Each structure stands twice: as C-alpha cells, then as structure tokens.
Amino acid sequence: MDVQTALVTLLAVAIVSALAPFVVAMSGRLRLPQVVVLIVGGVVIGPQVLGWADPASVTLIADVGLGFLFLMAGYELELGLFRQHVGRRAVVGWFVTAGIAVAVTGVLAAVGFVHAFVPVALGLTTTAFGALLPILRDNDMLGGRFASFVMPAGAVGEFLPIVGIAIFLSANGKFLGLASLVAMFLVALLFTVLPRLTFLARFSSTVRQGENATSQTTLRLTVALLFVLLVVASEFGLDVVLGAFLAGVVLKRWAPGDVQSLETKLDAVGYGFFIPVFFVASGMDLDLASIAEAPLRLVVFFLLLLVVRGLPSMFLYRKDLDRSQRWQMTFLTATALPLLVALAAVGLRTGHMLPENAAALVGAGVLSMMIFPGVAVALHRRGRAEPDLDHGGVDLRGPA
User: Fold this and answer.
1) How does it sit in the membrane (predicted)?
2) 3-state DSSP helix/strand/coil percent for the chain, to nearest 5?
3) Looking at the whole model, is its pTM more than 0.85?
4) What is the 8-class DSSP label of residue 72?
5) Sign, CA torsion 200/206/209/212
6) Alpha carbon 100 to chain centroid distance?
7) Coil/strand/helix, residue 210
8) Which residues contact 236 (CB under 8 A, 6 or more apart)?
C-alpha cells in the first residue's frame, strides 16, 4: 500500500468524521446518531460506491479505534454493580439470551442456514456497550434508576461474548483458550497491583508532575497500557478486544493524578479521531455485494438480534422498570456492531463462518446501530416530563 493512497484515504475519512456533527445538526427532528452518519459515510467513500478510499490502508488505525472503544467501555464499568441486584439481573439476562441463541442457531444450522452456529450464537448475545455509551451520555440517559440497570446489562453483553470468543473460537483450542484467558486476567491483575507498591512512589510522583505538562504522562501511560494488553491478548491467541476491555477496567483502578482531566483527554483522543475511523472503516468494509445477493440473511439476523438479545428484557425487568423503560432496554441491548465485526473476522479466519453469513451479520449490526438506539432515545424523550436539552449533536466525544 503506497503512502499516497493511505493519505488520500485518511483525508476522506477525516472529512466524513468532521462533517458528521453538521449532518446530525441538519437532520432536525430525526436527530441521526453520529454512528449512522459515520458508517453511511464510509459506505459512500468506500470501494463499492465512490471508490475514494481504500479500507486496507487504515486497518491499523481502525483497529486502534476499536481498541479505544472497548477501553472506554471497560473504564465506564463499575464492578461493584455486579454485587447488587442490577448486576445479577444482567448476568441472568445474558445467560437466558445465550440459551435462546443456542437453540435458535441450532435450528438454523440444522436447516443449513449457517455453517457452524457457535460464532452466530455468540453474535446474537452481544451488546454494543462501548458504542452506546456516548449516545446514552449525550441524551442524559446515564443517570437515575434506568442507568443502573442498562449499564451492567450492556457490560455483560460486551464482556461475556468476548470470554466466549476466547474459549470457543481460540486458535489454540478450547483448553488452551481457557488457560490463555486465565493468564490474561492475571496479567491485568498485575497491572492493577503494581502502582500500589511502595517502591513505585517516585514513579507515581513523576506521573502526577507531568500529567498536564508537555510530557502528558498519564495519557502516554494509558496508551501504552492499551497496547501492552492488546499485544498480550494477541500473543495468547485471544481476540484483541479482550485486551482493550481489560485495559479500561485496569485503568479505572490505577489511574493516577487528575482522573477527570484524563477522562477528558481520552475522550478527545478516542472520540476525536480513532473511534470515528473505526466506524467509517466499518462502512467501507461492508460487503454490499454479498448482502445484495442474499438480503434475507441480513433481515433474519437483524430480527434475531431484537428477538434473542432484546425481547427477554421485557420479561426479566418486569418488576424493576416500567413498560417504556423495558422497551428502551430491549432496543439498547439488541444494538450490536463492534463485536460482530470481530466475530466475523475470527469466524472467517478459522473457517467457522460462511462469508455470506459474516457479511449479513455485520450488516445486521450496522442496521441495529442505525435504528435501535434512535428508537430507545425517542422513547426516553417521550417519557420525560421536562423538555430535552438539544445539544445540536456537535459533541465529538461520540455519536448522538
């Protein structure tokens, strides 16, 4: 790949990213999520429409964007919630979904619709927690009782499928995959303990002194932590999204100095550049030809995301949330994309997934990202007594 092609692609991606907030602002009452604009923009500039950009030339940057997306999700996760009712309900909900997913995909495999049902079944249990966070934040949905339920539900919908990928789709086999997973957790635990050791007191002092100087110590250490765990996960034969998610969890526990300042910097770096590149690249990579040849597959997977992952919320949270909130939970938990991209890549690499199913599953994830959060936000606004504050959609921390 020559430098000129890479630069032209980056220019096209940067233009789509820069224009996205303005397109959102001009969408009026529709209030399109920025994710939708970024993905559609990627499709338009990609090789299957205008041909202005080559997705292969930004693969590495897009992968870093995916890493930042999962790092932010891990950082937002409050582990204490899983000792409470809301966390236990989320875990139960995921296992109910997993049972339904296995049954449904088993039927699809029996009739020849899918080649091997493990990656598809895992895909139907996912929730795009990291991608939903900026949408929930920008629409004031991260506070109150509803947020205490949706946060753990989204987190388990992102984390437990990653564990499933590590065990069932590991290139090293199930036993070594499980052993690698345990080793990965031990490495992450080591990182949480290290900063507390007394001999590192001088290290911590240096970090605090340089966090707002040109050395930007906390931000540099965070990026280094992300890449260390990405590399370790890759070396263990695990999907790198696990390393990114654990990096966020670790960062939550050892982030030194001014934590609020660090969060602002991570928002700027992640949502300002890397994460939009991931979404635009996802649009460029969307296999429109395969989807056009078998559109029914995309429709089936799209509906299954809603039925398998989303609808159980209507029953599981009947004593905790009102009907409107349960419908919001249904649409939010059924939203998937980043993990579907990872699952499709793993499934194709290992031969566990048919190419047409990989394209349809990712396409269904794109469609869910385009539709479901918007429906949930509309229901949220309708249920609020006070008028919603219109931010104009120009917050570059994420799509809204």
Assistant:
1) Multi-pass membrane protein
2) 80, 0, 20
3) no
4) H
5) negative
6) 22
7) helix
8) 180, 181, 183, 184
Q: Give me the domains of the chain, ranges plus CATH numbers.
A: 59-269+305-383 (1.20.1530.20)
Reading the block at residue 22, the tokens are 């303005």
Tokens of 275: 């994460």
Structure-derived torsion over alpha carbons of residues 60, 62, 66, 71, reported in degrees to the nearest 10: 70
Answer whether 348's CB lies under 8 Å from 139's CB.
Answer: no
Residue 52: how many other CB atoms lie within 10 Å: 17
How many CA within 13 A on the CB side of residue 205?
Answer: 5
Query: How far apart are the C-alpha atoms of 343 and 69, rounded to whole Å?
Result: 16
Q: Which residue, among 165, 55, 170, 83, has the nearest Cα to 121 in the 3D structure?
A: 165
Query: φ, ψ for residue 254 (rounded to 5)?
Result: -120, 5
CA 99, 123, 365, 225 dihedral sign is positive
Altogether, the residues listed in the chain come to a count of: 400
Dihedral of CA 24/30/35/39: which sign?
negative
Residue carrying structure tokens 């919908």: 157
Residue 253 burial (CB < 10 Å; 0-12/13-18/19+)?
middle
Q: Which long-range contacts (CB under 8 A, 24 or more apart) does 137-143 make?
A: 137/397, 137/398, 138/391, 138/393, 138/395, 138/397, 138/398, 138/400, 139/377, 139/380, 139/381, 139/388, 139/400, 140/388, 140/389, 141/377, 141/380
d(CA 328, CA 191): 37
284's CB contacts (< 8 A; 6+ apart) are 42, 43, 45, 46, 47, 53, 55
pLDDT in tens, 123-174: 899 998 877 877 887 777 877 788 888 888 888 888 888 788 777 766 555 5
Count Cβ atoms below 10 Å from residue 227 Cβ, excluding itself: 16
* Cβ atoms of residues 339 and 131 within 8 Å: no
321 close to 376: Cβ distance less than 8 angstroms: no
pLDDT for residue 105 is more than 50: yes
Max Cα–Cα distance, the chain, nearest Å: 64
Express each pLDDT in 231-258 by its tens digit. Answer: 777 666 666 677 777 777 777 666 655 5
Q: Alpha-carbon torsion 182, 159, 394, 40, what sign?
A: positive
